[in-house]
Amino acid sequence: MKTIKEQLEDIPGTYVFTKERSRLGLHLNLFCTSLLKAANREEFLRDEPAYLAKFPLTEEQRRAVLERDWIGMVRLGANIYHLSKLGGTDRKTFQYMAGCMTGMTQEDYRAMMLAGGRSIEGNRSKSEQKTGA
Amino acid sequence: MAKIIAGLGTSHVPAIGVAMDEGKTQEPYWKSLFEGYGPVRKWLAEVKPDVVILCYNDHCAAMPPDTIPTFAIGVGDEFKPADEGWGPRPVPVVKGDPDLAWHLVESLVLDGFDLTIMHQLQVDHGLTVPMSITCGQPKEGPVKVVPIEVNVVLYPQPTGRRCYALGQAIRKAVASYDKDTKVVIFGTGGMSHQIHGERSGLINKEWDTAFLNDLTANPQRLVDLTHVDYIRDAGAEGIELIVWLIMRGALNDQVKEVCRHYHVPASNTAAGLIVLENR
Ligand SMILES: [Fe+2]
Fold this sequence. Notes:
Chain A is mostly helical. In chain A, 62% of the residues lie in helices and 0% in strands. Residues 12, 57, 59, 126, 189, 240 of chain B line the site of fe (ii) ion.
């Protein structure tokens, strides 16, 4: 019997916001939370590195923010709803951020959604994907 | 005597709010989604509830990453629309109902549900978009709202079973409120969607349809669903659907489906809506 954690980690292309990610990403997510204020958004956009220096982020997290490496930020503990504050600061939508994370072009991603979205078939588990079931 | 007369489940996709705020509801992308909202607006205008108990989840606008209540309730006179990173939505301030909210607090806590009590709560798209979907674009808040907020962001979210039990406790609490009050309860979020990771864009229409079907006649199957079931089959963010079970738990065992609407896509999401009346 697999543990809940093992079952969650077996879902492909998915980074469930667990205690590990929430600890790892706390300051990254606190930075995103600071962008709920318009004045902070302006200050951040004026000088991004200077603004980020106020938060105890790792070098990798800092780089991921500056490069808008959305999937990288998720891997480093950011939650998508926190990230949406950074996305909003850039005037970008959830669909834009999600599209970036898939590695598809924005056009292809939008077309996939209009055609009914990504199918669940073959996307339930990593083990299923390996066996080609 | 207060009474819950009906429940309503709906998605709360932020892009639906943006489409309304920017006057895009008649554009080809949005037209058929919004056409499906006609019957529910008509129904709600006829029913005219005094209060909506609106169960939803905040998306890290009111709840910071270092403080995450599992369940919270807004007891204020009013709730301002939150700035979610692109300025607050141009929608009216949401009117609260402190009397009913405090009655719920007391009844629920004495009943074993320890909700976080919030005098101030800025409400994000999880609450404002369902108001727009069901009430259109009035200049002032059209109905009093008691917000009940649920953590669906950080694992472990409450179980669907716990949400359903909370709904049952809300049913009991409302029944013991002595002011004549007509209540409709909303459960919002979902349906299937995933908006992070390489699996983004997941939609599971078959799963959603079964969820809508069983909400009326077989909620016990839904109550048994696990975190893994939701996240795997309805997408990581589809777990918002546990919030609908609070709504269902607050209704009678026997309910009648009044109307339903299902549309793909609203941005990244399968948008669902259902109205259930107590029998
Ligand atoms: Fe949501």
